[in-house]
């Protein structure tokens, strides 16, 4: 079929008109989705800061909101501006790397603080075996739960002594031990801690052999830790393989740059090279997350 006659029907659209149409479409979409856009921007900016503050407060670290906001701004937009200047006059590369490092500088602190918080919770759980043993021996010797917890504070290091000290301080100013322990379970959201808090609160109301309960909790935590250590040993090879595979492209890039900079520079000073580099970085991140998901086994 001859379709040459359709060429005459095509109406060319001038560039200014096309620009105006695109601007109108963007305005309409922004107007209709303004609430969601504002909420998303707020969550990605002030929401990140508030989450960092929450984790720091859970770790008993005082922080100034204004100083934290300035630090995040300098570490994100300042870092992005620095990379933009480094790649000048290549505007495309400067904008690409500036945007990437701006996002990294804004999101990375939250993940670092969250990692430190998770590590603190794990350290607390690891100390619970010794703490439960001290509590059990104290109750058997005729001490109350509060007196036994005071022995834990005096004999064990942080973070468990810090948390138990706060529980005892809250009880001394008038808060019930049940409520103080419930807040402990909220600060340390781990199954072992929840089991300890629930057991003490129930036995406080109904009565029972608390020393035997502490021994049972100790046995349960110890067996769980054995399984976790075995899983860590079995998945250590996969974790190391993921780290090595993720680092190989960057190591090879550094080696090529040291041997012959002209061989690797097209990745940074050409549009196709920048696109290829962004694709590689995206695939590296996706691959690393997939490997992490495979080797992460929850007990």
Q: How would you characterize the overall build of this protein?
A:
By secondary structure, this protein is mostly helical. It has 13 helices and no strands. It has helices at 15-32, 34-44, 46-58, 65-86, 91-140, 145-155, 160-172, 177-187, 191-206, 210-259, 261-264, 266-269, 271-295. The longest helix is centred in the middle third of the chain and has 50 residues, at 91-140. The radius of gyration is 29 Å and the shape is elongated.
List keywords for this structure.
single chain, 299 residues, mainly alpha, 83% helix
SSE topology:
Layout: H1 15-32, H2 34-44, H3 46-58, H4 65-86, H5 91-140, H6 145-155, H7 160-172, H8 177-187, H9 191-206, H10 210-259, H11 261-264, H12 266-269, H13 271-295
Helix pairs in contact: 3-4, 3-5, 4-5, 5-6, 5-10, 6-7, 7-8, 8-9, 9-10, 10-13
Question: Per DSSP, what share of the residues sits in E-state strands of 2 or more residues?
Answer: under 5%
Please tally the β strands and state the result: 0
Radius of gyration: 29 Å
End-to-end distance, in Å? Answer: 67 Å
Number of helices: 13
Structural class: mainly alpha
- Average pLDDT across residues? 80
Q: Roughly what percent helix?
A: over 70%
Compressed to H and E, one letter per element, the order equals HHHHHHHHHHHHH
Shape category: elongated
Major sheet: none
Unreliable runs: 5-10
């Amino acid at each position: 079929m001859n379709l040459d006659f359709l060429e005459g029907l095509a109406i060319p659209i001038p560039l200014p008109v096309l620009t105006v149409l695109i601007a109108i479409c963007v305005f309409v979409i922004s107007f209709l989705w303004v609430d969601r856009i504002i909420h998303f921007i707020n969550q990605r900016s002030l929401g990140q800061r508030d989450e960092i503050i929450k984790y720091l407060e859970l770790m008993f670290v005082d922080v100034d909101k204004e100083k934290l906001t300035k630090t995040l701004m300098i570490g994100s937009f300042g870092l992005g501006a620095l990379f933009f200047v480094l790649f000048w006059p290549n505007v495309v590369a400067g904008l690409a790397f500036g945007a990437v490092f701006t996002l990294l500088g804004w999101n990375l602190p939250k993940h670092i603080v969250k990692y430190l918080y998770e590590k603190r919770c794990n350290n607390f759980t690891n100390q619970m075996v010794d703490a439960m043993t001290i509590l059990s021996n104290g109750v058997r010797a005729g001490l109350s739960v509060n007196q036994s917890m005071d022995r834990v504070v005096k004999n064990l290091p942080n973070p468990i002594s810090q948390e138990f000290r706060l529980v005892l301080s809250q009880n001394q100013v008038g808060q019930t031990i049940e409520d103080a322990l419930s807040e402990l379970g909220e600060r340390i959201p781990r199954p072992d801690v929840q089991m300890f808090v629930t057991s003490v609160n129930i036995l406080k109301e109904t009565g029972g052999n608390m020393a035997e309960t502490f021994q049972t909790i100790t046995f349960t935590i110890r067996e769980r830790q054995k399984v976790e250590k075995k899983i860590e040993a079995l998945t250590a090879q996969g974790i190391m393989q993921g780290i090595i595979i993720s680092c190989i492209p960057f190591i090879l890039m550094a080696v090529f740059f040291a041997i012959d900079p002209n061989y690797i520079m097209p990745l940074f000073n050409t549009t196709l090279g920048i696109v290829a580099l962004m694709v590689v970085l995206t695939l590296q991140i996706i691959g690393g997350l997939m490997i992490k998901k495979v080797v992460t086994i929850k007990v």
